[in-house]
């Protein structure tokens, strides 16, 4: 699934992927072969290597507290709603644009 989504992005937006050391990317070699996008893993206990990820995790905890986050209790529609809200939330690191706006600008710039 991630491979298919990544391939929808312009090539310059998928030059590499930095990932945490979780089991989610145990098949990272397959992902790299399917997409041509190398995967790099952050060092354990080094949150500064993945600042945007850590920030996003904090935002997600507002919706899914660590103590009660059993994701089996959520539907795909629930998760999509949270994703839509977070992608519409302005971010300082993006010059107060929201992630959806920033991505749209990048995609428009690559087709011009």
Describe the fold and architecture.
The protein has 112 residues and is mainly alpha-helical. The protein folds into two domains: 41 residues, no CATH class; 66 residues, no CATH class. 46% of the residues lie in helices and 5% in strands. It has five helices and two strands; from the N terminus they run H-E-H-E-H-H-H. Strands 1-2 form a two-stranded parallel ribbon. The longest helix is centred in the middle third of the chain and has 13 residues. The two termini are 28 Å apart. The model has no long low-confidence stretch (mean pLDDT 86).
One letter per element, helices H and strands E, the order comes to HEHEHHH
Number of helices: 5
Task: Note the gap between the termini.
Answer: 28 Å
* Envelope shape: globular
Q: Please tell me the total number of domains.
A: 2
- Look at the helices and sheets and give the structural class: mainly alpha
As residue ranges, the low-confidence spans are none
Largest sheet: 2 strands, parallel
Q: From the alpha carbons, calculate the radius of gyration and give it in angstroms.
A: 15 Å
Q: How confident is the prediction overall: mean pLDDT?
A: 86
Hey, roughly how much beta strand do the residues contain?
5-15%
What is the spatial order of strands in the main beta sheet?
A: 1-2
Protein name: Integrase catalytic domain-containing protein
Organism: Pseudonocardia zijingensis
Function: Required for the transposition of the insertion element.
Family: Belongs to the transposase IS30 family.
